[in-house]
Amino acid sequence: MVATDIYIYSKGGKQNIVPSWAEGQRPIAGESASEFANRVCRTHYPPSGAGCGTGPGSERNKIQRWAREKWGGI
Fold this sequence. Notes:
Number of helices: 2
Distance between the termini: 23 Å
Oligomer: single chain
Protein backbone atom coordinates (compact mmCIF):
# COMPACT_ATOMS: atom_id res chain seq x y z
CA MET A 1 0.00 0.00 0.00
CA VAL A 2 1.30 3.40 -0.97
CA ALA A 3 0.72 6.38 1.28
CA THR A 4 -1.19 8.16 -1.50
CA ASP A 5 -3.72 5.31 -1.62
CA ILE A 6 -4.97 6.11 1.89
CA TYR A 7 -7.75 8.69 1.95
CA ILE A 8 -7.57 9.93 5.52
CA TYR A 9 -7.68 13.63 6.27
CA SER A 10 -8.59 15.32 9.52
CA LYS A 11 -11.73 17.35 10.21
CA GLY A 12 -13.93 17.71 7.20
CA GLY A 13 -11.67 16.22 4.53
CA LYS A 14 -12.10 12.99 2.61
CA GLN A 15 -13.05 10.07 4.80
CA ASN A 16 -13.51 7.34 2.18
CA ILE A 17 -11.40 4.37 3.23
CA VAL A 18 -11.97 1.43 0.90
CA PRO A 19 -12.08 -2.06 2.47
CA SER A 20 -8.65 -3.69 2.21
CA TRP A 21 -10.08 -6.78 0.51
CA ALA A 22 -11.32 -4.63 -2.40
CA GLU A 23 -8.09 -2.74 -3.10
CA GLY A 24 -6.63 -5.16 -5.64
CA GLN A 25 -9.80 -5.26 -7.76
CA ARG A 26 -10.25 -3.37 -11.04
CA PRO A 27 -13.41 -2.65 -13.02
CA ILE A 28 -14.10 -4.51 -16.25
CA ALA A 29 -14.21 -2.35 -19.39
CA GLY A 30 -17.59 -0.63 -19.65
CA GLU A 31 -18.57 -1.44 -16.06
CA SER A 32 -20.05 1.40 -13.99
CA ALA A 33 -18.89 2.11 -10.43
CA SER A 34 -22.15 0.67 -9.11
CA GLU A 35 -21.80 -2.55 -11.13
CA PHE A 36 -18.17 -2.82 -10.05
CA ALA A 37 -19.09 -2.46 -6.37
CA ASN A 38 -21.88 -5.03 -6.70
CA ARG A 39 -19.54 -7.52 -8.40
CA VAL A 40 -16.81 -7.09 -5.78
CA CYS A 41 -19.33 -7.45 -2.93
CA ARG A 42 -20.85 -10.59 -4.47
CA THR A 43 -17.35 -12.06 -4.73
CA HIS A 44 -16.50 -11.31 -1.11
CA TYR A 45 -19.96 -12.07 0.37
CA PRO A 46 -21.47 -14.81 -1.82
CA PRO A 47 -24.04 -15.37 -3.19
CA SER A 48 -25.84 -12.02 -3.08
CA GLY A 49 -23.28 -9.64 -1.59
CA ALA A 50 -25.72 -8.60 1.14
CA GLY A 51 -22.91 -8.45 3.72
CA CYS A 52 -21.65 -5.22 2.12
CA GLY A 53 -24.78 -3.43 3.20
CA THR A 54 -26.41 -0.35 1.72
CA GLY A 55 -26.42 3.30 2.63
CA PRO A 56 -23.88 6.08 2.93
CA GLY A 57 -21.41 4.34 5.26
CA SER A 58 -21.60 0.85 3.76
CA GLU A 59 -18.70 -1.04 2.21
CA ARG A 60 -20.55 -1.05 -1.13
CA ASN A 61 -20.81 2.75 -1.10
CA LYS A 62 -17.14 3.15 -0.14
CA ILE A 63 -16.11 0.90 -3.03
CA GLN A 64 -18.28 2.92 -5.45
CA ARG A 65 -16.79 6.24 -4.34
CA TRP A 66 -13.25 4.80 -4.45
CA ALA A 67 -13.82 3.50 -8.00
CA ARG A 68 -15.14 6.88 -9.17
CA GLU A 69 -12.16 8.70 -7.64
CA LYS A 70 -9.54 6.24 -8.86
CA TRP A 71 -10.82 5.54 -12.39
CA GLY A 72 -12.43 8.87 -13.19
CA GLY A 73 -16.18 8.55 -12.99
CA ILE A 74 -16.64 5.07 -14.42
